[in-house]
Please model this.
Amino acid sequence: MPNPQLLCLTPVVALFASGLLSAQNTLYISGGGNSVQINNSHVVHSDGDLNILSSATLVLGSTGEPNLEVDGHVDNATDATFTAGTGLLELTGSSNQNIDMGGDDLYNLEIVNSAGATITDPVTVNNEVQFNTGDITTDATNFITFETTASSAGEANASHVVGPVAKNFNSTSTFTFPIGDGTSLNTLGFTPDGTGATTMKASYSFTEPASRSSKDAGIIKVSFVEQWTLTRESGSEDGAVTLEWDASSGVTTHTDLIVAGWDGTKWANIGGATHTGNATAGTVKSNSTSAFSAFTLGSTTTVNALPVELVEFTARSIGDDEVVLKWITAAEINNNYFAIERSSNGVDFESIDSVSSYGNGFSTDLQSYGYVDNNPIKGTSYYRLRQVDFDGTYDYSNVQIVNFDGFEIVDMYPNPSNGEVILVINSSQASTVQIEIFDAIGQVVNSQQIEIFEGSNQLKNFINGARGKYFVSVTTSKGEHFGYPLMVIK
Model:
């Protein structure tokens, strides 16, 4: 951001222009038809609030990016005028900031405040919302609307919108709503079928969807932990919905996922036309739909959406004759035991032992489990958990791959990264691997085939993209897949 000149209005400094401008804790722009203009790339900073009083005018110029930094609340009177120009309103406080633009638009909005900001009156952004640090909180009445050409940048787990966001569409381009629950970013994308003027509004909630037992015959399960809401506020365009999952979503086989939409009586199968990522993190895109309400992840097989909330499952080789399995649950409902299953080919599994539930089948606390296989398969082996309920129904975990002599990804660092990431791979023989890096909406930003040699290999990759969530996918020459989430914090 350009910063050639800085005018800092502190609690002990006052700047007067024919009596129009003052700053003592609060920067006031007084009324009576008076006007203040910030031009070029000048920066004005207020250590306190910004109050644009009745009938006053504040103009940000249309040359460069005039920057208005505010540490406190922003209050633009309904009969005052704020002209956005090509300017930036930057929220730079250290406590939560209330933003009331009095019905006027913004051009650029940036949040650099770990305490966050709250929208207290609806506001439209014409160009970009820049997420740096902190969340922006909205509600059903007071929310941000992205204009047709507006976009977002930098959204991440630590900085996104908590609450509804609206978007005006007039093209078939996908818009990804930068929404989450204040802890993690869980976006929703919408791709209109046509170019008719249409406004959509989206929000996310980490709560169990209602009426999960009412579903299409083709849906075996729907998520029990999260849901998105997408409504058509105006216009008539239908379109496709893209949902994003992460490690807390309970996904085990991502290619079995579909988008499930509530049609008023049941969860309907909207389809899963496109998948990205892996069981840890990725996206699924639906077919076109005309029914807009609640959406969540659904599964067409039993190998998904565990009734036990499995936080972690790992399998590691120790020495030459042991495999140590560890798993953690965050919640257990009707859980009888875990069967330990093993395979030499990743297809045909056999049960080698079982571990009973520590919580007598019901728990809302973290439970840690462990098991040691003292007679493992040499070479490559595959492990999974079969979680069995008291009524005999069961679900599978994701599959973990163990190599005693073969291919192993030892580490991926740094994570978070500034764009450079190093993969450490041990291999018992020379081979090739395909490395692909996906952004948060599933687009490939880097793809390359790399030769690896016997022993330890350090493979360096670069991500030339904005800050946010990425997914690193590694495929071996034998078709084995490994996937890791990566956070870029440029």
The two ends are 14 Å apart (CA to CA). Residues 409 and 425 are 4 Å apart (CA to CA). The longest strand covers residues 123-133. Residues 1-24 have pLDDT under 50 and may be disordered.
